Amino acid sequence: MCSCPISSTAVSAGLPHIVAARPEQGWALLCDGSIVFDDSGELHPDGSVVPPRRVPAERLAPAA
Q: Which residue, 31, 42, 28, is CA-closest to 3?
C-alpha cells in the first residue's frame, strides 16, 4: 500500500516516496506521480512546475 498523499499538495497523509529512479539521468518518480530532478526542480501530475533552485556559479567551491 502506498503511503502517498491523495494530492501533491496534501501534507497530512504523509510524504511521497520514490517508486522509480534514474540517477544516471537525474530524476526520480514519486508514488504521487511527481517527478523530482537532481537540480531540485519538480514536475507535478497537474502540470505545475517547481523551478530548480540553483546556486550561482561564483558560489560553487572549486573541485580539488
A: 31
